[in-house]
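Chapter summary example.
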Amino acid sequence: MKAAVLESAPGDLVVVDDVEHDAVGPREVLVQTGAAGVCHSDLHYMQGKYRTRMPTVVGHEAAGVVLEVGSDVTYVKPGDHVVTCLSVFCGTCEFCTSGRMVLCAKRGTRRGRGEPQRLKRAGADISQFLDVSAFAERMLVHENAVAKITKDIPLDRAALLGCGVTTGLGAVFRTARLRPGSTVAVIGAGGVGLNVIQGALLAGAGRIIAVDQSAAKGELARSFGATDFVDASAGDSVAQIRELTGDGVDYSFEAIGLKPTTEQAFAMLRPGGVATVVGMIPLGTSIEIPGVDFMYEKKIQGSLMGSNQFRTDMPRYADLYLQGRLKLDELVSARISLDEVNSAFEEMQRGSVARSVIVFD
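The structure predicted for these 361 residues follows.
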């Protein structure tokens, strides 16, 4: 099958047509990939900012149609439409049974040492990226890596639920548990940041301030629910936030993954405020925060994939889209072929797109 392989990092993807998947195991699902989003998280690994085994087929935000299921699978059947999620869960550990599946250690969800791996090329094993490997014509995954969705939502829109939408909305609903009427700042108006913005709107935020270095993102952020826009290239964004609000915001969300913006997210809080870090901060980076601010009950916390419970979250988000309450069409900046994937990452780095989506035939 055709797939995009990362052979070394930093490096571009190599599109090949000789990747093979193994036979479907008892608790596995084979999915015909319909669409896959090009996510900034993939770029972190391609740039070597995060580590993964190589060679690997990159990609993790996808939707498709079930082709085959293992003998022990009852959740889905051939023909079902599904969204994949890297938050694959075992269902039995302490985190899973307490409702925090996103922190699952994934025991039993991966093939063990000595077993045939799910992907091969020329007889050699290929690592499965984030338990999904979505930049391929088919995905062989554990049954707990998929969520079944209605067939009414197009696959190129459904794919976005697999990471960007779930991460952004989940950071608002599940991690921060935003209170209606609150004042919010969202740093970064890219794919994830826009979903934080529309999540804050759905949660009833009273004021939503988008922050980005690209002034062109202002209108886009407003179309997703931002009430104000701060151009970070025009001066100190914390000072601009305080000028707008007086004493800062109740909630801030960092959706870029950088040391300065993380520190700014904490600095722009009012007393009692909560900063939620959604972006992937490069390995080895330390964050500096004034200790005295904790006396004012300010908090900073991380959010992994929006603290999701994706089996229930994703079908609900699909319903919100079909009701016209969740924007997905507007997130898709371009539909591309797999051969254009490296160009899509270049566009991402220029900050000119919300989301490029690979569409498979």
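To summarize the output: The chain has a mean pLDDT of 96.
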